[in-house]
Amino acid sequence: SLSTDCQWTLYAADTVGNRDIYLQSVTGQKPINLTEDSLVNDDEPALSPDGQQIAFRSAREGGGIFVMGRTGENARKVIDRGYNPAWSPDGLQLAFTQTPTELRPANYEGQSDLWVVNVSGGTPKLLYEKDAALPQWSPHNQRIAFNQRFAGKAQSAIVTIPASGGADVYVTSGAGMNCSRGSGRT
Q1: Taking Cα atoms as reference points, which of 182, 185, 156, 152 lies closest to residue 171?
Q2: How many angstroms separate the CA atoms of 71 and 151, rounded?
């Protein structure tokens, strides 16, 4: 995850026997381990639009999606499930998928529904009951793009839906792998 001012990068790495989240200046050489106090996997970090909070997946406290300050302080659980959190542009909601997903055909674990939850917690809302992976909000806060994998095939498509739920729109099609993650813009 790259900060909106392009000064910081956020990533997960396994350097001590479990995955930790690191913050590093794009011009620096020394990363800061933000989750070194956690003995379980912490990964899939996403920096909030204002750059002050980090949403991430963790196995701590039974697992789920957590939010912490940019320098690793005050980690708190938002919801007790979910993967690949993505911030809404206003910083008030997180989109997430139900199952762990990477963009590799061998990682296909079946359908992964798309959900949204308020950053302060509460009851999540199911937005999409078909396969959804790697969600990303549009800059205007009105649509969510995601990758949809096709079972048993090394193929996928980029799909969008209204942020409040509704009809899906296929942006790509074909025999290749397409991805909704990357620049952070959809």
Answers
A1: 156
A2: 39
Cβ atoms of residues 24 and 30 within 8 Å: yes
pLDDT at 152 over 70: no
Q: Judge contact between 57 and 79, C-beta under 8 A.
A: no
- 148 within 8 A of 130, measured Cβ to Cβ: yes
- Best CA proximity match to 55, nearest among 103, 12, 100, 108: 12
Closest CA to 45 of 67, 62, 27, 76: 67
Residue bearing tokens 């396994």: 14
The candidate with the shortest Cα–Cα distance to 157, out of 166, 167, 148, is: 148
For residues 78 and 123, give the distance between their C-alpha atoms in angstroms, rounded to a whole number: 10
Condensed to tens digits (0 to 9), the pLDDT of residues 64-111 reads 999 999 999 999 999 999 999 999 999 999 999 988 766 554 455 667
Half-sphere exposure of 4 (CA within 13 A, CB side): 12
Q: Assign residue 59 a region (left: φ > 0; alpha: ψ between -120 and 50; beta: otherwise).
A: alpha
Residue among 71, 70, 130 nearest 98 (CA): 130
> Is residue 118 within 8 Å of 96, Cβ to Cβ?
no
